[in-house]
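Example S7 (structure tokens).
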């Protein structure tokens, strides 16, 4: 049965794969996009001859484009455009892709001549309905060791349009959008790994999409076979903001294995000096926090053991070197979920889930068996403790760890198939092959990528106080997602670890901060929760529950056009989708100014985000006050909400419903 990611955004029809034997030509297409690949007998190579946006009737390919290449450090070029024979092809349903309904074409390229002994499977995924993207990757098999692979190019398209402008988000995202002010729509591409390259050679009109494996780790990258990272290529109509929105839909519904409910609201406790004001580790203190955490509405009790001084030693499941006496002293009742005296057991008795932070490798170990041994120990811990959330921390390098992390995660999933896995420095949950949070080809640290430098500063050091002063784009995400990322822009920012839930200036300040967090993150909260008052706990619970109940809208994220009539520190964001359960979603606006009232109007263009809004039946509600707002008007196909006033250091949440 054919499925679609969301019939409210895309149609539901089967994609089509066809092969013409006389011309050795394949067509992969759906209602929106068509790609044609041909085997050239004369050149003994594989070429894309058409990349068509069927809705706009726009052909992007100027001349036959080779399907890609591998460049070795020795200078040898393994080009799919020459010295390969056709070894056959296969069609298959891609059941492993989130959302279903996807079909795959696999073309078998057999090396001859200088490429003898090399076999490359060229894989294409075509999606149902009018989903406007294709994904592609190689699977390489060799009879000889190729040596260090310096570059992998997964597509090299010769485009008709040479004057494309490039709209990119590096180093936060691999997405690149190519568009022209003179023509509607364009093409976009992304690469699912670090050291990525999406580059248009304007003088030649060549769009090259690929990546450079981390050559500093050459002993791990001597390719004897395996899968490359995936790329995504798509088309869009409208402007470049429409392309960003389409890519967000691809990430949410097709790329990330996580969904908007994968990361549950959680309370984090970290026994580090500045976190617990010098308290020593104490299992009894932890268990005293459990009923308070439950009272505040959190679903997971998340523990970070103190092991920072052991960072460069062998990794440890519990955060302590194996056999260290302090582990027994700190957790005398162990970690069995079946023991009500243990921390996981006490959480289970209270109806809370248990999460753990595991410290790993600072540098790549010498071999994969070391990873496998650690993965087995980690899986045993997950099995014993019943952990439903694992946040894994390492700094072991980029491309190498993409493979090692996959091995570790697969082993952990054998212990608990439902566990949510996040990785520090990476920030996105689940195995996503790093389509976001990756660093570009020319990022600092090349030829090897000191990758956390590229993603660290703007993520962890945004917030300075509960009013978000000096943080202009508090809601900005290094990717376009919100709820499927771990490092929340507010409570989980490191400067807040001492102030997350303590020394609250007033209840208005607490709500300002909690609402900001609930609107943009999965609600990971840290701080001295035992010192909160009953009133504060009720406030925390209010926003934790609001966040959890509204995630089906919060997962969609659009920028907000604010028309200010007086200049204040105002920012905001929209979470809208097609009408679902009677509502389109929410708009949040925050006034950070200490003294001035904000007087603003808002403009909403639902068409830009593929939202079919019946404006004549729209109902706008001030959610906090529970009253209808009547001062709005239809202006063409847009909605303008007028004369909104927000007091100093206050916020407004609008709920948009259909009548």
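Recovered sequence:
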């Amino acid at each position: 049965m054919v499925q679609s990611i969301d019939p409210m955004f895309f149609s539901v029809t089967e994609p089509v794969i066809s092969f013409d034997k006389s011309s050795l030509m394949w067509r992969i297409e759906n209602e929106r996009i068509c790609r044609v690949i041909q085997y050239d007998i004369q050149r003994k190579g594989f070429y894309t001859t058409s990349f068509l946006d069927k809705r706009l009737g726009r052909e992007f390919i100027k001349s036959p484009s080779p399907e890609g290449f591998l460049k070795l450090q020795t200078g040898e070029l393994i080009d799919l455009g020459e010295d390969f024979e056709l070894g056959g092809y296969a069609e298959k349903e891609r059941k492993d892709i989130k959302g279903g309904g996807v079909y795959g074409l696999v073309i078998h390229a057999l090396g001859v001549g200088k490429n003898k002994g090399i076999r490359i499977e060229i894989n294409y995924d075509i999606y149902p309905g009018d989903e406007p993207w294709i994904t592609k990757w190689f699977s390489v098999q060799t009879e000889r060791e190729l040596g260090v692979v310096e570059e992998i190019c997964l597509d090299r398209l010769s485009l008709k349009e040479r004057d494309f402008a490039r709209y990119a988000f590096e180093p936060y995202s691999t997405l690149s959008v190519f568009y022209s002010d003179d023509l509607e729509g364009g093409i976009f591409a992304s690469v699912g790994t670090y050291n990525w390259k999406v580059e248009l050679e304007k003088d030649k009109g060549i769009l090259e999409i690929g990546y450079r494996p981390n050559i500093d780790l050459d002993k791990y990258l001597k390719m004897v076979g395996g899968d490359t990272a995936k790329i995504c290529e798509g088309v869009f109509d409208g402007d470049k903001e429409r392309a960003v929105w389409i890519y967000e839909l691809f990430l949410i519904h097709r790329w990330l294995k996580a969904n908007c409910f994968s990361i549950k609201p959680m309370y984090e406790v970290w026994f580090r000096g500045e976190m617990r004001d010098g308290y020593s580790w104490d299992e009894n203190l932890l268990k005293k926090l459990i009923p308070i955490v439950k009272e505040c509405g959190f679903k997971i009790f998340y523990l970070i053991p103190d092991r920072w001084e052991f960072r460069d030693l062998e990794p440890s499941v519990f955060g302590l070197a194996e056999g260290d006496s302090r582990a027994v002293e700190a957790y005398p009742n162990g970690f069995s979920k079946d023991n009500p005296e243990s921390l996981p057991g006490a959480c289970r008795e209270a109806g809370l889930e248990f999460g753990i932070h595991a410290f790993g490798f600072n540098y790549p170990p010498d071999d994969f068996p070391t990873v496998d041994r650690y993965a087995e120990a980690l899986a045993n811990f997950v099995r014993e403790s019943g952990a439903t959330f694992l946040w894994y921390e390492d700094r072991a390098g980029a491309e190498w760890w993409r493979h090692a992390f996959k091995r570790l995660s697969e082993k952990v999933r054998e212990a608990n198939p439902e566990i949510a896995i996040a990785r520090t420095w990476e920030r996105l949950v689940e195995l996503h092959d790093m389509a976001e949070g990756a660093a570009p080809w020319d990022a600092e640290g090349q030829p090897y990528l000191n990758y956390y430098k590229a993603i660290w500063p703007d993520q962890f050091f945004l917030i300075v106080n509960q009013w978000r002063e000096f943080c202009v784009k508090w809601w900005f995400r290094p990717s376009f997602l919100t709820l499927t990322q771990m490092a929340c822009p507010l409570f989980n920012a490191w400067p807040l670890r001492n102030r997350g839930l303590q020394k609250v200036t007033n209840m208005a300040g607490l709500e300002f901060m909690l609402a900001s967090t609930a609107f943009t993150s999965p609600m990971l909260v840290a701080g001295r929760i035992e010192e909160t008052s009953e009133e504060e706990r009720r406030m925390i619970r209010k926003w934790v529950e609001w966040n959890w109940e509204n995630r089906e809208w919060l997962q969609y994220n659009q920028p907000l056009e604010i028309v200010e009539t007086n200049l204040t520190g105002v920012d905001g964001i929209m979470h809208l989708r097609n009408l679902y359960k009677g509502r389109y979603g929410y708009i949040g606006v925050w006034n950070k100014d200490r003294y001035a009232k904000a007087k603003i109007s808002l403009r909403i263009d639902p068409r830009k985000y593929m939202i079919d809004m019946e404006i004549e039946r729209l109902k706008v509600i001030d959610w906090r006050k529970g009253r209808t707002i009547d001062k709005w008007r239809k202006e063409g196909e847009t909605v303008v909400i007028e004369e909104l006033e927000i007091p100093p250091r206050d916020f407004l949440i609008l709920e948009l419903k259909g009548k």
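Notes on this example. The longest strand covers residues 570-580.
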